[in-house]
Design brief:
This protein is an all-alpha fold. It has one domain (about 1-40). It has one helix at about 5-40.
């Protein structure tokens, strides 16, 4: 793998990792608020 190919590969991987982080954080926030709503309502 040439250095140029490696740079492109790492840039794409970094982008996917950031997207995955955003999705996971959104899921955690959603679960937190659903849990709080259940506790406060119950």
């Amino acid at each position: 793998m040439t250095p140029e190919q490696r740079a492109v590969f790492e840039k794409r991987r970094r982008g996917r990792n950031i997207a995955l982080l955003v999705v996971l954080l959104a899921l955690v926030v959603l679960i937190y608020f659903v849990g709080m709503a259940r506790i406060l309502r119950g």
